[in-house]
Please model this.
Amino acid sequence: MRRRHWRVRAAMLAAAALAVIGTAACSNDPGAEHAAGRGVERSGMPEIPLQIKGQQDDGLLARFPDAIRASGVLTLAADPTYPPSTFKDAQGTIVGISADFAAAVKAKTGLDVKWVEVPFDGMLAGLKAHRFDASWSGWNVSAERLQVLNIVTFMNGGTSVLVKKGNAAGIAAATDLCGRTVTAQTGTFQAQTVLENLQAECATAGRPVIVPLLIPQQTNVNQALATGRADAALADNTLTAYQARVQPELFEAISSILIAPRPVGVATPKDATELADALAATYNALIADGTYANILDRWGISASAVPAAEVNPAEPT
Model:
């Protein structure tokens, strides 16, 4: 869950949606990792994978495609470098908000979950090639994405800004990013859409252009900010709030900035409409029985709740 990607949530103190792969543990020196903004993202949040027990709903299981029901396995792609949505605990187990929802889907349907680790910028190609059933990263809804994917939305999200402790650049509004080096994870909505829109705002305001610094893994995005290679980072606002909470001596989130609030969800290939509908039905069953609210509360993101999961809602205007 890398993706990355399950959206408002700036008001939450801790947060979601989607990854923490290997580079978070490159050093045996905790102080070195801490100084680089690596290795400590996990502190202060739940790390024990959620254990969910409940009665299997055979009616929900029957809604999944024949091939998935025959195998009994739902293959999910995750980029576990994006806490708190998807990351790894000390034993290397994938945990986080997205992992909790995968456990809930397993309990509700009886399908086992098989994780496939994929960088977020490889998710789209993997979905198109049917290398996995769904991308369990947080996908923001956009018209472009809806042309090539099904997105099953189940939370609200938005983009916010993370800066180094002290905010020496005085960033308080989106246009304060003009003329600055701004980093984001490759392939994300922030890298593909938000930065482009901000560049247009800078041009309209007669301000210098933003210097983009796009990096494949979110842990390295955080490191670029911590080491001064970038002046600010763009990310899902649950991630910025999370980093500011668990590393307050390194980072602070700019809560006055919330860009493009919109629904967030998991993605399936465009031709996998039966699977998308089945996942939406399962999420709605989790909303109805209270499991959904319990997961959001566990991670401190109850403000992200939506009344119902949807398949391919229109892009917010």
